[in-house]
Input
Amino acid sequence: MSKAFPPRLRSSGPSSASYAIVASKFNQEFVQSLVDNAHTELNALEPGAQIVLVWTPGSFEIPLFVQATAELKRFQAIIALGVIVQGETDHARLIAEAVTHSLLDLSLKHRVPVIHEVLLVKDEAQARARCMGTEHNRGVEAARAAVSASRKLPEIV
Output
């Protein structure tokens, strides 16, 4: 696991920004923690921002819901959250690869930051460390990346 953790950005004060979190219900114990941490961090960085939460059945469906969310053209960034636990077959890897490629394509097509935190982990211990830990919580990282990207993109377009 990378030890590089993005520092907390400065709060912008009251915000009119809108963020979407698209999250998988599969492995919900871990994903809920990601959602809670991302939501808390977004509120700290962008007080008053609208945060819309969209649940999907599983990680494979995340790109479809990200696409529908992006088409609304009302979010400064979209955060995709999910946990895929590697099993004995290649199924988990295939899902993770499909989701990764789809999220990148959607971000480029819609010109909106899509923050990819659909995690492929070896086991529940890795999921716990990345989702429920405080040292390198991927929900916090996702929120920081979303705010950073949403602030930076308008500067260059």
